[in-house]
Design goal:
The chain is of the alpha+beta class. Helix 2 crosses helix 5. A 5-stranded mixed sheet has the order 2-1-5-3-4, with helices on both faces. It contains 5 helices and 5 strands. The protein is globular and about 55 Å long. Strand 1 and strand 2 form a beta hairpin. The structure holds FE2/S2 (inorganic) cluster (FES) (2 copies). One FE2/S2 (inorganic) cluster binds next to loops.
């Protein structure tokens, strides 16, 4: 197949693929790399179901070309859980019954992770703003917002513990 050869990083792993120049990153992730967490809700950048990060920035992968992944770091919902352990956001989405359907939830999680990576202690307003690009007609968003706030507190506690351990070792 003629196409673009791309070397990139997905969830910390080095990945290479060949795709047609016009193929979206969403299609590459789903159809070439088998990462089906990102979903195609609208295909026009309106719903956030296809959310991933590129170099830490939240993007709609339906609006990005696979070729644009060259040399970048891609983050998808599959990268949230580590070594069989759910990310605090995933834990709190479960605890707060914030899970919606399989189409919109991965996007909410990726957008929430991008928020907390950039702003570890967001206000409710900031959480709502960060999730404004993730659409779901079926929820009032309150449980999701509370889950993100609780995950932020969990992450802050974890960071404090790690800091204390590192200090002890010195
Ligand atoms: S599928 Fe990309 S924003 Fe809806
Ligand atoms: S779109 Fe997923 S539950 Fe509403």
């Amino acid at each position: 197949m003629s196409g673009v050869h791309v070397s990139t990083t997905v969830n910390g792993d080095a990945v290479e693929f060949v795709c047609p120049a016009g193929e979206t990153l969403l299609d590459v992730l789903r159809d070439r790399l088998g990462l089906t967490g990102a979903k195609e809700g609208c295909g026009t950048g309106d719903c956030g179901a296809c959310s991933v990060t590129i170099d830490g920035q939240l993007v709609c992968s339906c609006l990005v070309l696979g070729a644009e992944a060259q040399g970048r770091e891609i983050g998808t919902v599959e990268g949230l859980a580590r070594d069989g352990e759910l990310h605090p956001l995933q834990e709190q989405f479960i605890s707060h019954a914030a899970l919606q359907c399989g189409i919109c939830t991965p996007g909410f999680l990726v957008a929430s992770k991008a928020l907390l990576d950039n702003n570890p202690n967001p206000s409710e307003e900031e959480i709502r703003y960060a999730l404004a690009g993730n659409l779901c007609r079926c929820t009032g968003y309150d449980k999701i917002v509370r889950a993100v706030g609780a995950a932020a507190k969990d992450l802050a506690r974890e960071a404090k513990k790690t800091k204390a351990k590192t200090k002890k070792r010195k």
